[in-house]
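Handout, page 2. Input:
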Amino acid sequence: MLKRKVPQAEVARELGVAVSVWARQLAEVNGAVGKLKGRPLGRPKRLDAAQCELLSRALVAGALQAGFATELWTVKRVRAVIKREFSLEYSQTGCWELLRSLGFSPQMPEKRATQRDEQAFVQWKRKTWPALKKKRAASAERSSS
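Output:
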């Protein structure tokens, strides 16, 4: 009844009890719940929206632009950029969560030799590989008969 905003006097008359203690407890609980609902969960963000935007731009611009030897972004490199640009240190997990909140996802680079000749590879795959497969099939046939 108190939650429905029925006056204390009316509740006391109807139930035949003193209601002031209940009303005070209900007010305390509602105040505590209101305080809990008003606060965001977890640690507060350490980078504000403008800093997050700057970090996103740096990541999109590339690791070479940020001064690294290759174009590959790693958590270690992102942490180094955050420390250099914003004087904040993030843990590896915290950095992962920050990257995820900014919309980045883990990517695996293709494992490919940098000196690979793409045309030679295509040529080998079209001509040499089928010839090798034919030889292998023919030798397997001979050995089974």
